[in-house]
Write a structure and sequence with these properties.
The protein is built from eight helices and two strands. It has about 250 residues and is mostly helical.
């Protein structure tokens, strides 16, 4: 009975988070405009599923994310949609998000409590510095009020997580690392696949010289990949803390 209940819970979690992933992809909620950058949130349900329910559920939600990416590329094409017609780029990296985030999370949980507290403080300090920089650039560049308010909200959330991390670092820091690794798995594998398989066609679609392909793709990984990873840490940490508290 317990095994059946556990399986039902995991399937329900996978279905709900998979549905959320699709909703994010079909609505503006899948892209958070922070002024000087835009960060996608579609991979975050995959990370949450992996950390809360394990790599199998995480991989299943990642599969839903990947299949949706492939179908979306077909029915709503853009100049670079062709790269997502290949499952090696649209599906496999998304499945691996759930696997890498889970094992990064469980590996860091084994660290010494004192080291986790120190690392947690450093991480949240860096995130606050990053968000403060984004806020400064937005104000300087005259970004919209919506962009500025979104960044301020993220700063407030980050401050709250920073405050509570001192008490719960042994739980929070592993979640943050799992979120970071999962997010970068998506960015690195997708962009590496694009570079190795479609470099010439990709840069032609963007009207970029072929010799600039490497720098262009690397630039995307830095300007979008890192902000998305930082955003994943903030949102994933908050959501998982709420889920675990509700379960207790």
């Amino acid at each position: 009975m317990n095994k059946k209940t556990l399986s039902s819970r995991k399937l329900t979690t996978a279905a709900v988070l998979g549905a959320i992933t699709i909703v994010l992809g079909l609505t503006p909620l899948g892209l958070i405009p922070l002024g000087i950058i835009n960060a996608t949130t579609m991979h975050i349900p995959v990370i949450i599923a992996a950390i809360v329910e394990g790599p199998v559920v995480g991989g299943l939600v990642g599969l839903i994310f990947g299949v949706f990416s492939l179908i979306n590329a077909v029915i709503r094409p853009t100049p670079i949609s062709f790269v997502f017609y290949n499952p090696l780029i649209s599906v496999i990296p998304r499945i691996l998000i759930g696997i890498t985030s889970y094992y990064a999370y469980t590996s860091v949980k084994k660290f010494d409590d004192k080291n986790l507290k120190t690392a947690s403080k450093i991480l949240w300090s860096l995130l606050l510095i990053f968000l403060a920089f984004i806020l400064y650039k937005n104000i300087k560049n005259g970004a919209s009020k919506v962009n500025i308010i979104l960044v301020i909200i993220l700063i407030i959330v980050c401050l709250g997580l920073f405050y509570y991390s001192n008490k719960t670092a042994t739980k929070d820091f592993p979640i943050a690392i799992g979120a970071f690794v999962g997010s970068m798995t998506n960015t690195i594998l997708v962009l590496t696949g694009i570079y190795l398989i479609y470099a010439q066609k990709y840069v032609e679609a963007l009207n970029i010289p072929l010799e600039n392909a490497r720098s262009a793709i690397l630039g995307v990984s830095i300007t979008s990949g890192l902000p998305e990873a930082f955003l994943s840490i903030i949102i994933t940490s908050g959501v998982i803390k709420a889920v675990l508290k509700a379960r207790r």
